[in-house]
Design goal:
Radius of gyration: 33 Å
Strand content: under 5%
Distance between the termini: 103 Å
Helix content: over 70%
Order of helices and strands: HHH
Structural class: mainly alpha
Length: 79
């Protein structure tokens, strides 16, 4: 065997021997930490949607009040 091929053949053989030991997880969806984080992310998405929803009755009432107050102040400023 040539001296240059020994390191290469050692590397190939060691990769073939140790590759099965480094296999990935079979099903990552069975990971309890991942499931917990996915539930938390879904909860955060729901909360964000509720905060961004401008069509709720309370928001409409507040907007109407603010507009009426702005009109009153504008009318006071003109007189």
């Amino acid at each position: 065997m040539h001296p240059q091929t020994r390191p290469l053949s050692f590397l190939v053989i060691s990769c073939l021997l140790f590759a099965p030991l480094l296999c990935a997880q079979d099903n990552p969806l069975n990971d309890p930490d991942l499931k917990e984080m996915l539930k938390e992310a879904q909860k955060m998405q729901k909360e964000a949607k509720e905060l961004q929803n401008p069509g709720s009755p309370d928001t409409k009432k507040k907007l109407a009040e603010m507009l009426s107050q702005a009109k009153e102040e504008e009318a006071r400023g003109k007189t």
